[in-house]
Amino acid sequence: MPDVIVIGVGPAGANAARFAAREGLDVLAVDQRQEIGAPKRCAEGVVLEVLKRDMVPEDERWIAQRIHGLTFVAPNGRRVSAREDHVVGVVVERKLFDKYLATLAVRDGANVQAWTRAESVVRDGDTTRVTLSSAGRTWEEEAAIVICCGGVDATMARSLGLTEPVQPKNLSSGVQFEMAGIDIPDPTMVTCWTGRRTAGGGYAWVFPKGDDVANVGVTVLGSDEENSITYLKRFIASEPGLAQGSVLEVNAGTIPVGESISHFVADGIMVAGDAARQVNPIHAGGICEAMEAGRFAGETAAKAIGRGDTSKKSLKEYEERWSKGYGAFQNSLVRARRAVHSLSDEDLDYLITKITPKDVVDFLAGKGFTRAARLFARRPSLLKVFLY
Ligand SMILES: Cc1cc2nc3c(=O)[nH]c(=O)nc-3n(C[C@H](O)[C@H](O)[C@H](O)COP(=O)(O)OP(=O)(O)OC[C@H]3O[C@@H](n4cnc5c(N)ncnc54)[C@H](O)[C@@H]3O)c2cc1C
After folding, report:
1. 0.90 exceeded by the pTM?
2. Structural domain boundaries of the chain?
């Protein structure tokens, strides 16, 4: 019997499996996909810092483009850029990146099995029972702890009473074309467009993967009247340099952009990553968050098993670690997102005229709220954001 079963081998599950196995646990990690990481549903942007923190050695096989900064484009076309001399992030080849994270887990001792689906999870005394299926065969496995990392669509955590369905106002719908043959002024910069006409309650992006290849997408709130593909096609048609491009891949998926779930643990159960809605609500990115949460969950599982107590109380350490770190400001970022969503294009134009590159860096890091408050206070139509 394995000590831990991890369900889902995306960034959260791979890290949960890896960091539990590193502590000497017997870990089985399963993913229903035939190929881990494929198909991708992602713009593939990752912050460099998290790779260092999680001991992921850089590997040219999955680095598509090194990124030095970010440009925001206002509805009126004005641009503000934050550029660093050093590399701040990478656009990865997600199919290879996820597989690489899974390989690191295997190298640290985990047993990873693709094309294996978890059908159900039931807590039974001191163990948790998982029904698995693969290639027409169904069987049961037991473990002291099950870590659910099945992503945004996973129903496992819901069946255990840990989550409710996400409301449309807290769900972004993302759609993207991986395009080739486009003009990219500077492939070391990612560019994001704001504005009602461009992306309703979200934003449009170009994440370069080379000199003439990029992920070009939009994310739109689920409650928006127009669907994301309408926005994307209109955006591509209106943007010089994109309209002539070819489409190599179409990627679509949903992203939870509200608060995280209230409790990530129950007796013998943990939930991490998109399944726990641990996503940055401003830019709708969740890879780094999933990796961080997966690591915390794996390490906590090892400690709990070490002390022979896999109760909810014992597993709470994971919840507490998360809440002291990123979780501490996720909910304020949700309010900030709702506030930004309420702004007119004229208000966005004003803000993007006033902000500096440093403001962009601070904002994305969840800092600089005092300076933001000052900017908002100078324009009466912006004061409504303080209601959120
Ligand atoms: C269009 C789009 C663009 C995005 N762009 C970015 C970006 O640029 N940067 C960023 O940081 N984030 C981005 N995201 C979000 C990011 O993709 C997710 O936050 C991230 O993948 C979450 O990782 P995870 O491990 O929690 O879940 P996932 O990566 O979704 O992995 C879950 C895994 O669980 C498996 N699984 C599910 N149920 C079962 C089951 N019952 N049995 C076995 N296996 C199961 C699935 O097959 C899957 O492999 C984007 C999302 C979308 C939709």
Report:
1. yes
2. 4-63+92-166+258-329, 168-256, 333-387
Does 4-63+92-166+258-329 carry CATH code 1.10.357.10? Answer: no
Q: Is 222 in the pocket of ligand 1 (CB under 6 A)?
A: no
Banded pLDDT at 19 (limits 50, 70, 90) = very high
Query: Would you say residue 241 has pLDDT above 70?
Result: yes
Place of tokens 């309209």: 243
Q: Residue 225 pLDDT > 80, yes or no?
A: no
Cα of 382 vs centre of ligand 1, distance in Å, is 35
Whether 202 is in the pocket of ligand 1, judged by its Cβ within 6 Å, is no
The amino acid occupying position 30 is V
Do 4-63+92-166+258-329 and 168-256 fold alike per CATH? no
Distance separating alpha carbons of residues 222 and 219, to the nearest angstrom: 9
Residue 368 has pLDDT above 80, yes or no: no
* Nearest-angstrom CA–CA distance, 339 and 372: 12
- Does residue 91 or residue 349 have the better pLDDT? 91
> Which residue did the predictor score with more confidence, 28 or 385?
28
Architecture field, domain 168-256: 2-Layer Sandwich (3.30)
Q: Is the CB of 160 under 6 A from ligand 1?
A: no
> Whose CA is closest to atom 16 on ligand 1?
286
The response to whether residue 279 sits with its C-beta less than 6 Å from ligand 1 reads yes
Q: Could you tell me how far CA 320 lies from the centroid of its own chain?
A: 20
Determine the distance separating the centroid of ligand 1 and the alpha carbon of 204, expressed in angstroms.
19
Cα(93) to ligand 1 centroid in Å equals: 14
Report the alpha-carbon distance of residue 303 to residue 169 in Å, rounded: 38
Cis peptide before 208 (omega within 30 of 0): no
Beta strands of 93-126 (E only): which ranges?
Answer: 111-113, 117-124
Max CA separation in the chain (angstroms) = 65
Count CB atoms within 10 A of the CB of residue 316.
16
